[in-house]
Amino acid sequence: MSKSAAKKIQAIRGMNDLLPSESPRWQFFEAKVRQLMHRYGFDEIRTPIVEQTALFARSIGEVTDIVEKEMYTFDDRNGDSLTLRPEGTASCVRSAMEHGLLHNQTQRLWYQGPMFRHERPQKGRYRQFHQVGVETYGFDGPDIDAEVILLSARLWQELGLLEHVTLELNSLGSAEARAAYRDKLVAYFDQHHDVLDDDSKRRLTSNPLRILDSKNPAMAEMLNGAPQLMDHLDDESRTHFEQLKAMLDAAGINYVVNPRLVRGLDYYCRTVFEWTTTALGSQGTVCAGGRYDGLVEQLGGKPTPAVGFAMGIERLILLLETLELIPEEALGGCDVYLLPMDDNATIVALTLAEKLRSELPTLRLQLHCGGGSFKSRMKKADKSNAPIAVLLGEDELAEQAVTLKFLRDDREQLRVSQAELSATLQNLVPH
């Protein structure tokens, strides 16, 4: 075999394996999310990871960084331009339109899954990353804006994160108000053209609102003096925003109004929000969303009010790990290691394991397989992290009993009959 043929194939940069030692953290987080969505009456939707490129170009905006620089786009064998989804909202809208979910009805939907963007990988940000998102359709009042924010706040509370995150709010107003504001903003930036960096000069003609989001310290003073969108809102958007704030105040949710919060996607209007944290070093966003009332119509449907958010799973799990908020019992391992002490006990152990799994469906039981000396079998029992080993040897087989050995506590071994084993384990293993 040639050297080139024998070269090891590795994962693509920025697209990572999730190893068995890491997956319990994800399962813990995903279980919290799934339970919460169920309690709030949201229904799960699953969309393909590949869509027509036009879907994202039309929804996200052709002059955004995502479409211009970051999308994984390719021509398939039929010559169609396809793209790995860089975010979930456009796919959700396309699916809801295609399957008639928006006609004279309201929807509360949620999803989770991988997204793809070609950007420089860094801790908590990867080229294949995973998001949880919610999307709601058919509600035009501020009450649904408040509910999706309250849903996210409850998730932080249940994860122990609420005191480590800050809610930032803004309103982008209607499309007409934003267009008038854009003209004033461009005129202001033209007066300070020499202060703009190259990226901002490029955005001046394509997406000037994104300049407000610049983190360039050399532009900070100039940006602080820029006209504020809040001062140019239409009356309806201003009333909507005041009502939203009143609802959050009544619910006891703290927030900061950030007039420079604009979000990077073209489809947003009215309410926009971000949950940010400084617990990972520099300020980072862990959840972001807002209203996108014009997107359904933009993609060929009837005008439909919509609001949603997305959160990055990798960054949230990194935050939970940094703050040591993932409980020990969620980190994997099994409750019981069932160990035939020699090959003569294998068949009995196998049937006993299945009996226990039927009688105790929440028990995490691992059966020893692969033979080996008694010493090597005990090593595997210890490595399983189970607190209890159930031993089956010659004496136990003769008595139709088992021996319980406590691997993590200094307790005497316990001999019980096989008939009593299920009830004994139910008392010893809390679930």
TrEMBL record:
Compartment(s) = Cytoplasm
Q: Which GO terms describe its cellular component?
A: cytoplasm
UniProt-listed Enzyme Commission number(s): 6.1.1.21
Pfam families tied to this protein? HGTP_anticodon, tRNA-synt_His
Q: What's the catalysed reaction?
A: tRNA(His) + L-histidine + ATP = L-histidyl-tRNA(His) + AMP + diphosphate + H(+)
Quote the InterPro entries the UniProt record gives: aa-tRNA-synth_II, aa-tRNA-synth_II/BPL/LPL, Anticodon-bd, Anticodon-bd_dom_sf, His-tRNA-ligase, HisRS-like_core, HisRS/HisZ, HisRS_anticodon
Q: Where do the annotations place L-histidine binding? A: E87, G88, T89, R117, Q131, E135, R263, Y267, Y268
> For this chain's UniProt record, which GO biological process terms are given?
histidyl-tRNA aminoacylation
GO MF annotations in UniProt: ATP binding; histidine-tRNA ligase activity
Do you know which PROSITE patterns this protein is assigned to?
A: AA_TRNA_LIGASE_II (PS50862)
Q: Has UniProt tagged this entry with the keyword Hydrolase?
A: no
Q: Where would I find the Aminoacyl-transfer RNA synthetases class-II family profile domain in this sequence?
A: 26-340
Which keywords label this protein?
Answer: Aminoacyl-tRNA synthetase, ATP-binding, Cytoplasm, Ligase, Nucleotide-binding, Protein biosynthesis
The family annotation for this protein states: Belongs to the class-II aminoacyl-tRNA synthetase family.
Q: How does it assemble?
A: Homodimer.
Under which name does UniProt file this protein?
Answer: Histidine--tRNA ligase
Organism per entry: Halomonas hydrothermalis
